[in-house]
Specification:
mainly beta
């Protein structure tokens, strides 16, 4: 069953293993924060959208896909926002992607037109290098897509990888089922966090006790613990829960915004109501940025 032909949060995504996962990301570019969703929120045809917040006014719609059964995956490198737009083409029963970039303002450039995508590139995170190579995670490996379309193994890591996140010029986060590792561009491990999911969790969303997303900054690991419905900070092996969501909300994405933390969750009710988003900003206290 394709996860892109029903509303966003009603899918079972496969990173080779089946997980509950909304396709998309939350990223920071300068003073802007971007995240993926659908528009309108009750859209039965699942037109993907990108929201933008400048920290001064209410979040606004940045762009909407003109295609139903679509998704946006986001990544930031330097001063550029890279966007993988994906659509499902029913006539050929195939996924196609195109790649866009923006400086965060209104001007968008297409750097690759639509091509068939059999790898579901971007679902496990991606990074566009200055060379045009695209580094991405496809469980259990890290791959590189060359500008000519050829895909090669970028580096082999000792443990299966389900997600990669670009941190800086020579730093990536790798997320597995139970661990997170900070590595350099060759996959050499710099720091590692083990046993991230709580062992005993009651009633995890969709029965999946997983870590959904992570971000790293100055020795701190920011974690969206889907299974335990918590957001936490880890520093020097010390875990601090900074937000605990109540049913039906489940944590999705995290991102550092300076010394503050962005925490994105949404409701999962499965009673006919569409998922409701919640974006909070943590700076010692929680402030609601966007909630529907």
């Amino acid at each position: 069953m394709s996860r892109s032909i029903f509303p966003l949060f009603f899918f079972l995504l496969s990173w080779q293993t089946t997980l509950a996962h909304p396709t998309g990301d939350m990223v920071v570019l300068g003073d802007y924060i971007f995240w993926s969703y659908i528009h309108p929120l009750d859209d039965p045809d699942h037109h993907a959208s990108i929201m933008r917040w400048d920290q001064k006014s209410e979040p606004e719609l940045f762009m909407v896909s003109q295609y139903s059964a679509s998704d946006f995956m986001l990544s930031v490198s330097g001063e550029l926002l890279h966007i993988i737009e994906r659509r499902y083409v029913a006539s050929s029963d195939a996924f196609e992607i195109r790649i866009l970039r923006s400086n965060g303002e209104e001007n968008l450039q297409m750097i690759q037109d639509w091509v068939v995508d059999t790898l579901r590139m971007g679902e496990g995170g991606f990074h566009v290098a200055k060379s045009g190579d695209i580094i991405f995670a496809k469980y259990p490996e890290i791959w590189m897509r060359k500008p000519d379309g050829k895909v090669v193994n970028h580096f082999h890591f000792k443990d299966p990888v389900k997600m990669i996140r670009y941190i800086s010029e020579n730093r990536f986060l790798l997320l597995g089922d139970t661990y997170c590792s900070l590595v350099d561009s060759k996959g050499i491990e710099i720091e590692r966090w083990e046993n991230l999911p709580d062992i005993n969790v009651d009633n995890p969303p969709l029965g999946r006790n997983i870590i959904f997303d992570v971000d790293y900054q100055n020795g701190q690991l920011l974690v969206a613990n889907w299974g335990a419905r918590t957001f936490m900070l880890i520093e020097n092996d010390h875990k601090i829960i900074i937000s605990e969501k109540q049913i039906p909300y489940a944590p999705h994405w995290v991102a550092f915004l300076g010394k503050r933390c962005l925490l994105f969750s949404s409701s999962l009710t499965f009673d006919g109501d569409t998922p409701k988003p919640s974006l909070e900003l943590y700076s010692g206290i929680l402030d609601t940025v966007w909630e529907k």
